[in-house]
Design goal:
The complex is a heterodimer. Chain A is mainly α. Chain A has helices at 6-27, 32-44, 47-72, 80-97, 103-132, 136-154, 190-207, 209-219, 221-226, 232-259, 270-280, 285-309, 313-339. Helix content of chain A is 75%, strand content 0%. The longest helix of chain A is centred in the middle third of the chain and has 30 residues, at 103-132. The radius of gyration of chain A is 21 Å and the shape is globular. The chains are: A mainly alpha, B alpha/beta.
């Protein structure tokens, strides 16, 4: 079996990306070299940039893990976005109501509420899949809209700031906020938490019976059922709801670690990017930490391209999409070669 | 054989970063007088709110020798990060063009005492965080007078993005202006919930036109094209309808239906703010920019000027002079924390 060294694949992806991205930037009248310099400096070029990349990776890693857990069980949970919003709404509610509680109690309460809300958001499509046979792709997408619009409603309705002026909630209690992982940065405990969840999922799949059952159901649900030892529906239900809980946790971590309040457009679509993050990592929990960081680096580098190279956001988004495409293509080529 | 390739990519990026080193240079080699940055949460191609801010940034570069930078943010999580990046990079003056930046600006202001943060339409202040408030209601009052005088159906409409106090203020003044001309006029009010959703703004406008409105004012950003498009289609279908521009001079956008625009000369306001900041006068209080300094104005579309009765224009000009001198106080909705009238 011929194996392509990952470094060569990376070089190929980088080369293809550089050519496509530089070409499109050049067509737009921008200097590709300045843009590339800004992309790199803004993502990994300094400690500040590295910390920003890591902060940006947190919601991507968590939602990526949520998606991977569901996909492993053969559940196409496209609803991480809605589950994330449900988690964020719950986290803000508890974070505001819990004024006066000590941090040791309040932080777990906030994150627990977020996970619970995400799980509840996934429970409805999970139930419809298992009991009524309704495809979860459609139901989870629909639940996304409900979650996004519910957040937009609560910030101008029941949870709007006490002054009633702007479309946002009051800030959560100081004690509900995640501690920072270093002074002068905005990197919070959520990063460690995301790594912890990744390790836990890895251990689950590698060493436990539940993990084996999930993989078996995902690979061949009928076989698993006929073999008689695995209750496929229960496994689907549990992994679906657990996936929702992790996505909800992502929303809670974002509120408790970064924004401290709920806004109508909290997520730029992490729940959807999560699918690319998970698939690129081959659904491997530890690899998702890597792909999450990669996408986080692209996001923070993209912001720097605007700031330092003066390239408008629309162009930056197009370049980032090109980067993702060529990474996916290179990865696919590598896999096919590896299979030969 | 499944393995992630993210890690090697990151390694390659790091290697590239090490090689590329510091590549930043000033274009003309001259040392900048100061560094100014702009944050917007929408595209600067909207011919209105964001475009005006971008023009202001360019004005700081061209007339004051500032080194400038702009970033369009997408989510609240990016607010803090953008403030941090600019302040850590040594930017002196950061314009955050929208009330949504308020909380993040207050946090950044505490962390970076040497940077001044100016929040357009912001709702609170500290020693180095100041709201820049455009008294646009002074111009929408005049727009309301024109609308009231031009309406044949006796119904006019207002289409807003989000019902925040600065927007509500412009609509209350518009109502007062329309009623000053026609006390019996009926006024419709709708909010789409999104500053840049063109389709939603068009839908809301069509709904108001169907209910008989024949003059429509908006207060949205990028979505204004939807409002104008709906009015133009009504005219193309044989009806009589007019639109009013907002935030910037939008008279040229659809010159055949826009009677005039309630204009904020955002660029001039930015420049005046920067000049005051250089003199050490910015901090600890809101900056109000209104018609007395010519920052806010109502501009009649010259193409349609002859369609507006001369008596109406004369009445509007007379009111304009009284508003500018402070003799006529138009209704508004105060919203800065700790200032009179705010909740």
């Amino acid at each position: 079996m011929q194996r392509w060294h990952p470094i060569w694949v990376a070089v190929g992806a980088l080369g293809a990306t550089a050519i496509f991205a530089a070409g499109s930037l050049w067509l737009g009248g921008f200097d590709p070299l300045t843009a590339a310099g800004a992309l790199v400096r803004g993502s990994v070029g300094s400690t500040t940039a590295l910390f920003i990349t890591m902060t940006r990776a947190v919601p991507l890693i968590l939602t990526g893990l949520a998606v991977s857990l569901a996909f492993r069980a053969g559940v196409w949970n496209i609803g991480a976005e809605g589950q994330l919003y449900a988690g964020a709404i719950a986290a803000v509610s508890v974070g505001i109501a819990g004024v006066g509680l000590p941090a040791l109690l309040l932080v777990p309460l906030v994150l627990g509420a977020a996970a619970l809300a995400g799980a509840a958001w996934a429970a409805l499509p999970a139930f419809m899949r298992v009991r009524l046979g309704v495809g979860e792709v459609i139901t989870t997408i629909l639940m996304n809209f409900v979650g996004i619009y519910l957040a937009a409603y609560v910030v101008s309705g029941p949870l709007q700031e006490a002054r009633g002026v702007f479309q946002q909630t009051d800030p959560i209690a100081e004690a509900a906020r995640l501690p920072m992982l270093g002074s002068g940065t905005r990197l919070h405990m959520g990063f460690a938490l995301a790594i912890g969840v990744a390790i836990a999922l890895w251990a689950l799949f590698r060493w436990t019976r539940v993990g084996f059952k999930i993989r078996a159901v995902g690979a061949a649900p009928t076989a698993a059922r006929i073999a008689g030892m695995i209750p496929a529906n229960r496994v689907i239900l549990v992994s679906f709801v657990a996936s929702g809980a992790i996505a909800g946790l992502a929303g809670g971590v974002e509120v408790a670690g970064v924004t401290y309040a709920l806004y109508p457009n909290l997520s730029p679509g992490w729940g959807y990017t999560a699918i690319a993050v998970a698939l690129l990592a081959g659904l491997h929990p530890l690899a998702i930490v890597g792909t999450g960081l990669l996408f986080g680096a692209l996001e923070s580098g993209a912001a720097a391209m605007q700031r330092e190279a003066g390239i408008p956001q629309a162009w930056v988004s197009a370049v980032v999409a090109l980067v993702i495409l060529s990474v996916l293509a290179a990865d696919q080529i590598r896999r096919r070669r590896a299979d030969d | 054989m499944r393995r992630c390739i993210g890690a090697p990519i990151l390694v390659a990026c790091l290697a590239f970063a090490a090689c590329s080193g510091e590549a930043r240079t000033d274009p003309d080699g001259a040392a900048p007088t100061f560094r100014a940055a702009l944050l917007t949460s929408g595209p600067v191609s909207d011919a209105g709110w964001y475009a005006g801010a971008y023009d202001g940034l360019m004005l700081l570069r061209d007339s004051m020798g500032a080194q400038v930078s702009h970033q369009q943010t997408r989510t609240p999580a990016e607010f803090d990060e953008a403030f941090l990046s600019y302040a850590a990079d040594g930017y002196d003056l950061v314009f955050a063009h929208g009330s949504e930046y308020m909380d993040a600006a207050m946090r950044a202001g505490e962390q970076f005492p040497n940077t001044t943060f100016v929040v357009s339409g912001g709702g609170s202040f500290s020693t180095n965080v100041v709201p820049l408030i455009f008294e646009l209601w002074e111009a929408t009052y005049l727009a309301g007078m024109v609308a009231g005088g031009m309406s044949q159906s006796g119904v006019v409409g207002m289409v807003g993005g989000v019902a925040i106090p600065p927007v509500q203020g412009t609509f209350r003044a518009f109502e007062a202006g329309a009623r000053a001309v026609d006390p019996d006029i009926e006024i419709l009010e709708a909010y789409t919930g999104d500053w840049n959703d063109v389709a939603a703004a068009k839908e809301a406008t069509v709904a108001q036109l169907r209910r008989g409105a024949d003059v429509i004012i908006h207060n949205v950003d990028g979505a204004s094209f939807g409002v104008f498009q709906a009015v133009r289609e009504a005219v193309d279908a044989g009806g009589v309808a007019w639109a009013l521009g907002m935030n910037g001079n939008q008279n040229d956008v659809v010159p055949e239906v826009i009677l005039g625009s309630a204009v904020i000369r955002i660029a001039d306001a930015f420049r005046e703010t920067a000049v005051a900041w250089q003199a050490g006068e910015v901090g600890g209080a809101s900056i109000y920019a209104g018609s007395s300094t010519d920052i806010v104005d109502f501009v009649i579309n010259p193409v349609l000027a002859d369609r507006i009765p001369a008596r109406l224009i004369a009445a509007m000009q007379e009111a304009r002079a009284r508003v500018r001198s402070g003799e006529l106080k138009v209704p508004s909705v105060p919203f800065v924390e700790g200032e009179p009238g705010a909740s």
